[in-house]
Design a protein that fits this description.
The two termini are 29 Å apart. The protein contains one helix and eight strands, in the order ββββββαββ. The strands form two sheets. The protein has a six-stranded antiparallel beta barrel with strand order 1-2-3-8-7-6. It has one domain (6-19, 27-145). It is mainly β.
């Protein structure tokens, strides 16, 4: 049994060339997303209260994720961000990717956008990644999101 019991869905953002271009001025690349379910991770909501010099307070909400390399469960192969092409059998972690808390079966398309996803699900966007997967004791990714 794993130490962590949460499940997340990673929405990897990538660009691809349009498939129906027939000459003329080439259209811009299309932003697309692949979806990967990962189990046995830890999702932790963080709330910090900060004060300004004039006494006003504001709340800063972040999410911390821990993905233990040896205990996570997914049916895809991890690749480093620079090698990720959007292949449906691969996944990666990079700044700007969207993480959904729990399992998400929605595809991001022109009809169902990232705004829809954020409205319908508990989500966070990756801002920083610490890769400790090469160490011998508790290899993991530690991820900070907003």
């Amino acid at each position: 049994m794993s130490l962590f019991q949460d499940t997340i869905t990673v929405m990897n953002k990538y660009t691809k060339a349009p498939t129906n271009w027939q000459g003329g001025i080439p259209p811009s690349n299309i932003i697309a997303y692949t979806r990967t379910k990962i189990s046995n991770v830890m999702w932790k909501d963080n709330v910090h209260t900060n004060s300004t010099s004039d006494g006003k307070s504001f709340i800063d909400k972040t999410v911390s994720l821990t993905i233990p390399y040896d205990e996570m469960k997914t049916d895809k192969t991890f690749v480093k961000p620079e090698n990720f092409t959007g292949d449906e059998n691969e996944w990666t972690l990079k700044v700007g990717d969207i993480i959904v808390f729990g399992e998400c079966d929605k595809e991001i398309t022109t009809g169902y956008t990232t705004d829809n996803l954020r409205r319908d699900y508990k989500t966070a966007e990756i801002k920083a990644i610490s890769d400790s997967t090469e160490q011998s004791i508790l290899p993991k990714w530690a991820i900070e999101c907003v």
